[in-house]
Amino acid sequence: MGILEKISEIEKEIARTQKNKATEYHLGLLKAKLAKYRAQLLEPSKSPAAKGEGFDVMKSGDARVALIGFPSVGKSTFLSLMTSTASEAASYEFTTLTCIPGVIEYKGANIQLLDLPGIIEGAAQGKGRGRQVIAVARTADVVIMMLDATKGEVQRALLEKELESVGIRLNKSKPNIYFKPKKGGGISFNSTVTLTQCSEKLVQLILHEYKIFNAEVLFREDCSPDEFIDVIVGNRVYMPCLYVYNKIDQISMEEVDRLARRPHSVVISCGMKLNLDYLLEKLWEYLALTCIYTKKRGQRPDFTDAIILRKGASVEHVCHRIHRSLASQFKYALVWVSVRQQLESLSSGVSEWSSNPSPHFLLQRGQAQSTALKEWA
């Protein structure tokens, strides 16, 4: 029996098994086996592969965004509208057969946008170049899941299932579980919270399925068996995702309102160029980028050339972006923040200022999207 058949059998057994206290240990073992077989399926073949055209493109710019969706949902049209790159668009499926990169210029940042070929059901098993598409998506900072608003929630559920099966966790944070294998001493299990989904016995059964008999496990939050398996495997990717519903000009206003109110969702129409500006604002928010401007003593700041960094960046990161030798010679910095950032910091109760002159103090810790260095007198 091949790996695909084993995966199918386990999925069927999980589907027909009732979920209750008596079957939770059995379901936990089945999920552990399913994760193992899926990991084996994604392992590259040891036999030498035939040479062919590369699929991925070199990462460039300040951030990378991947466009994922079924064929003919408007990915190529969206790329052509948002960037200067012309991606072929037609009324038939699978117009795009390889990865086409483009660059979005927004607030001084260069955001690399990748138009990936449409994936189909079963992409995680390699159908329709699905493995290559998903492998590129794992390298992105944000995933834009392009959906056809006329197809309801079917496309979204299928795409989430495909990405989930290959270890991509959308809009989820990494489980707060400490796990460390040891050479001896058995399994040490502790928790700082009351666990309602996992027990010590279930944790031991899952570890034994992975041939782990000596380890230290500490639960700092109430996690499910699936999340604990993710921690054991260790190759999961946690990334933000924007669900973009295209072709809203073909559905009713009530349906548009319902889709727009869903979490992490944006409604647009590439054909009529509707709501694209709001999508850019949401994308900037999900990328968590901030603009840093520099100035010389006694002169106005240069607002034409921004340094783009991630939220939570320190002055040391700014030094490294300017020149790698600057941080070792650095003494102090004068930092000005925008009024908007100060107001957001006050509302969140987070102080933006630090008296520490070292290059390690945080330049930004709030939710503001830009930081401006104003004129110094």
Automatic annotation (TrEMBL):
Keywords from the named record: GTP-binding, Nucleotide-binding
UniProt-listed Gene3D superfamilies: 3.10.20.30, 6.10.140.1070
Keyword GTP-binding carried by entry: yes
Record gene name: DRG2
Pfam families linked: MMR_HSR1, MMR_HSR1_Xtn, TGS
Domain OBG-type G residues, every copy: 63-288
InterPro entries given in the database record: Beta-grasp_dom_sf (IPR012675), DRG (IPR045001), G_OBG (IPR031167), GTP-bd (IPR006073), GTP-binding_2 (IPR031662), GTP1-OBG_CS (IPR006074), P-loop_NTPase (IPR027417), Small_GTP-bd (IPR005225)
GO MF annotation terms: GTP binding; GTPase activity
Name of the protein this chain belongs to: Developmentally regulated GTP binding protein 2
